[in-house]
Design a protein that fits this description.
The protein has 450 residues and is of the alpha+beta class. It is built from 15 helices and 19 strands. It folds into two domains: 3-98, Ubiquitin-like (UB roll) (Roll); 110-443, Glutamine synthetase/guanido kinase, catalytic domain (Creatine Kinase, Chain A, domain 2). α8 (269-280) packs across α10, α9 packs across α12 and α10 crosses α13 (405-411). The protein binds magnesium ion.
Length: 450
């Protein structure tokens, strides 16, 4: 979209204000509110931010401004505040793209793939919890009657939340995303709302806006919407199941489909190589797709009240089998089930694309699909089959990330060194800050034990 076309759209839509947006490492949506009268300046100079104040962007208070340059193709009028439109921006410093900005990192990874005539397309299953905060500070599902141990797909829970869910659905369609399903999920107060897949950059931009919309709509109802991976220890966590496929850049031909697949999953040889790449880099990848201390309470083997975590514990792939880290629900695409709601989509897709393309380049073979129920297979059996577990904590995952040269190259480098080292240093501090606290669980276990 040219600047003049963008101005035409803005006038046509009756938009008065623009959010000039970018995200930092955690995926926090940062914005400046810019009146449309200042659009020429916004497009030419960008919106100025003190990067250090935004969050982890490898900036200090002594650094010059981040100037966020809008990507006109990302223009989206926000139906929940229709006089405002969002423009996702690429962060620059002193005229250069800033290599610690997640959107810049994914853009560069996508450009490298395009040099091989490849585009990563991605769809995400957005799970979130709609919660009410009690006067004592505790949290409960938005609907206080939503207490069943098997709430998944319950039409009654769906009906109670109908106004909220249909509003989100209409807004998704108004933005041209193609909402196609909405359900009550496996935890009390948990919902999932789906929209059509697109190229990974577009899907990332949309996910950031969706989270902002969910937050805004919940707040208007006096509620909290959270994508936090595990808000309740005894309930299923918030995943971000991610569906991936490669396409040709020049002719938009799908590359993951093959009806003649000898393994019977409807996948091409390239898709299997991509799977092998993701499995080979699964340990380091986990730091990026499960990037919080809380993430590691979602993945693992211990089931919540509903009977299953629906999250992977092991590095394995299979057919239409939800106990695997990678599921192949049908031919033509793969579903990576490790990512959770706290994943920054730009960074998650960079990691998955880098790992997958490494498998393609090495012509790696993932072996035959695993048909077991990995939620019930004993640990001895798992070990005997040579299946490895995902890292147990964020700290372990960070160690795996910095040891992974493919991911290191995929995230690139900048003024302060490689992004993976910066990411790991921020996350190691986060781990210490949270785990240094003495918890109720520790008091329960140790106060009078010895
Ligand atoms: Mg789900």
């Amino acid at each position: 979209m040219t600047p003049d076309e963008l101005k035409g759209r803005i006038a046509e839509d009756g938009v008065e204000f623009l959010y000039a947006m970018f995200v930092e490492m955690h995926g926090k949506p940062c914005a400046k509110l810019v009146p449309v009268s200042a659009i020429d300046d916004l497009l030419e100079v960008g919106a100025g931010f003190a990067g250090f104040a935004a969050g982890p962007m490898s900036q200090t208070p002594a650094d010059p401004d981040i100037l966020a340059i809008p990507d006109p193709a990302s223009y989206t009028r926000l139906p929940w505040q229709p006089n405002v439109a969002a423009l996702q921006c690429d962060a620059t410093v002193e005229g250069e793209l800033w290599p610690y900005a997640p959107r810049v990192i994914l853009r560069r990874a996508m450009e490298r793939a395009a040099e091989q005539n490849l585009v990563l397309k991605a769809g995400v299953e957005v799970e979130y919890s709609l919660l009410h905060r009690n006067e004592d500070g505790s949290l409960r599902p938005a609907d206080e009657r939503d207490t069943s141990t098997l709430p998944c797909y319950d039409a009654r829970g769906l009906t109670t939340a109908l106004d909220h869910l249909t509003t989100v659905s209409r807004h998704m369609d108004a933005m041209g995303w193609g909402n196609y399903a909405n359900d009550h999920e496996d935890a009390n107060g948990q919902f999932e709302q789906n929209f059509q897949y697109a190229d990974a950059l577009t899907t990332s931009d949309r996910l950031i806006l969706l989270r902002l919309m969910l937050h805004t709509l919940a707040r208007r109802q006096g509620l909290y919407a959270t994508v936090m991976p595990k808000p309740f220890a005894d309930k299923t966590g918030n995943g971000l199941h991610t569906h991936l496929s490669l396409w040709t850049a020049d002719s938009d031909e799908p590359l993951f489909h093959d009806d003649e697949d000898a393994r019977g999953l409807g996948l091409s040889e390239m898709a299997y190589r991509f799977i092998a790449g993701i499995l080979d880099h699964a340990q380091g990848l986990t730091a990026i797709v499960c990037p919080t201390v809380n993430s590691f309470k979602r993945i693992g083997v211990g089931p919540p009240d509903s009977g299953a975590t629906w999250a992977p514990a092991y590095v394995a792939y299979g057919g239409n089998n939800r106990t695997q880290m990678i599921r192949v629900p049908e031919g033509g695409r793969i579903e990576v089930r490790a990512p959770d709601g706290s994943a920054n989509p730009y960074l998650a897709f960079t990691a998955l694309l880098s790992a997958g393309l490494d498998g393609v380049a090495r012509q790696a073979d993932p072996g035959d699909p695993n048909g077991d129920n990995l939620f019930s297979l004993g640990l001895d059996e798992i070990a005997a089959r040579g299946i490895s577990a995902l890292p147990p904590t964020l700290l372990h995952a960070c160690d795996d990330l910095v040891a992974d040269d493919v991911l290191r190259a995929g995230f690139g480098t900048g003024r302060d060194g490689d992004y993976v080292d910066y990411f790991a240093s921020v996350k190691r501090t986060e781990f210490r800050t949270i785990t240094d606290r003495v918890t109720e669980a520790e008091l329960d276990a140790y106060l009078t034990l010895m």
